[in-house]
Each structure stands twice: as C-alpha cells, then as structure tokens.
Design brief:
Number of domains: 1
Helix content: 25-40%
Distance between the termini: 23 Å
Largest sheet: 7 strands, antiparallel
Number of strands: 7
Strand content: 5-15%
Structural class: alpha+beta
Length: 325
DNA sequence: CGTATTTGACCTGG
DNA sequence: CCAGGTCAAATACG
C-alpha cells in the first residue's frame, strides 16, 4: 500500500467535494449532490483504511466494521414462457424507444495501476452483453446492462470504451438510471494487502500521473435528459463541451472488458438509494417532478417499489462480481 | 447445474 | 451500405 495511491484517493475525494461546492448554490438536483457526498465519503473512508493499513499496529482494535452481509439468495419470479417472435419484436421496439429517451452521460475515468478496479465499483452489478470493435479505436467497446434487468426491470446500461492513447483511461457512458438497489456491501477491509504480484506494473512516474489523473479523472458530460448545471466549473481546462452540460457522475464505475489488470472487486461503502426512478413513463415529466419534489432517495425507493411492484423484502444477489482477465 | 461471458450473427438508423 | 448496438448460442466459470 503505497502513499501515492493514498494521495490519489484523497484527491478524488477532494475533487468530489469541490464539485459539490460548485453545485451547492445551483438548482441542481439533490441527487447529484448526494451522490457527490457519498462518493467523497467513500473515497475518504477508503483513504482512511489505506492510511491505517500502512501502519496496522497503531490502529489495531475492532477489526473494523462488521461485514454486514445483506446478501441473500435470489428470488426468481419465474414464469418466463414467452417466445413469440412478435412479442420479441415488440420488446425490441420498446427498447429502441427507451434507448432514445434514456438519459445518458459520459464519464471519463482513469484507472491507476495501484487502484485497479478498486473503489470504482459503484455497487451495481453489470452483465456484459456485447463487445464491439469500434471504428477508429484500438480497443473494443464493451456493452453492459444491469444484472437485474429482468428481475426488477432495471434498465440501466453502460458502455465502456478504453481510450486509445492512454490505456488507463476509460470512457464510460451510462444510459438510464438504476431502479434497482445498489449492492449493500459494507467494506472495511484492505487491512492486509500484499503488494500484488503484478508482473508488469507501471509504477514509475506515479506522481506525475497523479496530476494528470486529477485533471482527467472526472470529466462528465450529460446529455439526453436535461439536468443543467451551467455553473459547474472546475479549476481545470478541459471543458470542451460546448452545449452539453457538465455534471457529476452518478457514480464512477468501471469494469472493463477483456483486457489486463486482474483485481478483486470492492464496493464503495454503504448502500444507498438509487437516485432516480425512470420508467417508460414520460421522462421529462418525471424530471420536472423530481426537481421540484424529490428530496429524499428513500422516497424514491418507495416510489420505485411501489410502481414496480415487488415486495419490500426484496433481496438480490450481490455475491458474484468477477474480475476479467 | 445455474450464471456470467464470449462472440458471431442479426438488426437498425443514418 | 455501414457502423454501432443487441441477441443468443456456445462456452466458461464456480
């Protein structure tokens, strides 16, 4: 556990706070602010545990938080005997429609070798459903959708595209908000972390990388839905997005396609509510509704439960998250 | 054995 | 027609 990773995590946290500050007096959706807070919190938590792990002796006492296991077996609302071509066509068509209306935003994140996939997991489980070579890009683009799409009708999706020139940068495009609960895992581990047995680790200029990372790590632009936040100003110079608005990432996330970097997975601490609920119902309607009314995520959840109609004792499986090769 | 990923075929919008 | 996005059969995984 080296110091530079620690610094990096701290910087992420700081950046989140900075963005939050920028958002504060603007009329941006509460959800965004909450997200920022949560992200910052998780970064700091992580930083703390990293720091502790540097000198474990000093901080020995309760083995950290309880591993509040909220996992439970899945409930399957079976009854999936469909298979009518017409029906599938229908579904597909619906999908297309959704595709258009779904809010979409891009966030560019950098994965440092030290961090790996770590901590960038937003606590959602994604299932990969495709990969495609993209025209002018070296690396293929991976297509993911929420694992619980069929169980709870969560239509969140994301695309992960590795940057051409800097392999440690990933462009992640999210589409749609999760309507499913997040992975509730509380993680307080990382006490003992062997220096990974990485073969080809790019360790050298980490400090300089940090700066770079600081600049590019959290660039996010939103489109589709209209969450404006014209005030979002970062001290950086990369605002190359003319008309689209810069916003905050609901959650940075990653999980890339068949490439290098093995790594375990890890969730940001505390589960929290999905920020928005979006269904096929009129999106804009909903948005205006949210901006004016939605004040608590809890409420959103209730709303969601309500409208989707699964029982509150809902449980899902967060058990398996894997690493790719 | 159930789930997740891989991967080529297929579909669709521009 | 093509590029990008998705499906689904075949595999891999645990």
């Amino acid at each position: 556990m080296d110091l530079s990773s620690l610094v990096e995590v701290l910087m992420h946290g700081e950046e989140q706070l900075r963005q939050l500050e920028a958002c504060l007096d603007v009329h941006s959706p509460v959800e965004h602010k909450k997200q920022l807070v949560l992200q910052a919190q998780s970064h700091f938590k992580r930083a703390i545990s990293m720091a502790k792990s540097i000198d474990p002796e000093r901080f020995r006492q309760g083995p950290g938080a309880s591993a509040a296991a909220l996992d439970s077996p899945r409930s399957n609302s079976g009854g999936s005997d469909n298979s009518d071509k017409a029906l599938k066509e229908q579904e597909r068509r619906e999908m297309c429609k959704k595709r258009k209306t779904l809010p979409k935003w891009t966030s560019q994140i950098r994965i440092s070798s030290s961090e790996g996939v770590d901590g960038l997991d937003d606590g959602h489980s994604w299932r990969k459903y495709g990969q495609k070579e993209i025209l002018g890009a070296k690396y293929p683009r991976g297509y993911f959708r929420c694992t619980h799409r069929n169980t709870v009708g969560c239509f969140a999706m994301k695309q992960v595209q590795r940057s051409d020139d800097d392999p440690s940068v990933f462009d992640i495009t999210y589409r749609g908000e999760h309507t499913c609960p997040q992975k509730p895992r509380t993680v307080a581990t990382s006490a003992l972390h062997r220096p990974d047995i990485h073969q080809s680790q790019q360790r050298p200029r980490q400090d300089q990388q940090l700066l770079l990372s600081f600049q590019t790590s959290l660039k996010v632009k939103t489109e589709g839905s209209s969450f404006e936040d014209p005030d979002q100003n970062s001290p950086f110079s990369f605002s190359s997005t003319p008309m689209s608005t810069l916003c905050t990432p609901p959650t940075p996330e990653n999980k890339f396609m068949g490439s290098f970097s093995p790594s375990p997975c890890r969730a940001s601490s505390f589960g929290e509510a999905p920020p928005l609920h979006i269904t096929e119902s009129d999106l804009s309607d909903f948005i205006s509704a949210t901006t004016s009314a939605a004040t608590s995520s809890a409420m959103d959840i209730a709303f969601m439960l309500d409208s989707v109609g699964f029982d509150p004792a809902f449980h899902f499986d967060a058990s398996s998250f894997l690493h790719n090769l």
